[in-house]
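Hello again, I could really use a second opinion on something today. I owe you a coffee for this, so here goes:
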Amino acid sequence: MCRWLAYSGTPVLLEQLLYKPAHSLIDQSLHSRLGVETTNGDGFGIGWYTQEHDVHTPAIVRDVGPAWNNRTLREIAEHVRSPLCFAHIRASTGTAVQQTNCHPFRHGRWMWMHNGSITGFHGLRRELCMAVDPVLYLAMEGTTDSEAMFFLALTFGLEEDPPGAVARMVGFVEQVGRRHGIEAPMQMTVAVTDGTAVWAFRYASAGDARSLFYSTRVESLRALHPDIEYLRELSDDTRLIVSEPLGDLPGAWNEVPERCYGVVREGQDEMHPFAPLPV
């Protein structure tokens, strides 16, 4: 499968997220602890928003090589600050290793990334993609189930109601899958953002969803660990959602419950139950 990270908070250098932590996303690309595969080397991608008031869409950089030795990624991470960014390392589940299949995916101001799979996607792909709005379909570039999920969610109203659109997307995939004899088609952790809020989902049709964690509020961590200096440097609005913890500091990470989704917006966070909806 894959590993991913979403950050929201005061603008931070990307290297602080991607390289500095003890079990950073770069380390996870070689030594994942909780993923299905230990190595995630089938490409990577980063997407970030700036604070420029006249720029409303995210920048995206994606590559088919592994993240651990990419000099361009290192250069970007050392020089770019962002208040909201996505990063993803890929382990292909059968679709081609090509740039257009690397996450995150972008449409307008929206970004999307996914870990998991649609069981039997090759047999379901035509029917799923035919349900995408014809105008949106023209913007699809790759061949992954992840991108199909994104454009189905856009079709089902992502821009107006992100949780409802993702629930309808999952409901539709399960409906199509079961019509083809696949009882548990969906396995996912998903992050999606419009540049102001981040929605993160953990769900699997048969349970046992892929791992997903969110960071403890910084003020609580300072109270737990008053002697740790770097916690004083973190802004109070720092929020991270990750496939697996970036370190081993006690109390720093909390598992997202299965069949739930979280919302992060301007330093505030909420957790809600999640269930598929019929289309």
User: Anything to note?
Assistant: Residues 162-179 form the longest helix (18 residues). The chain has nine helices and 13 strands. The first strand starts at residue 3 and ends at 13. Residues 91 and 175 are 27 Å apart (CA to CA).
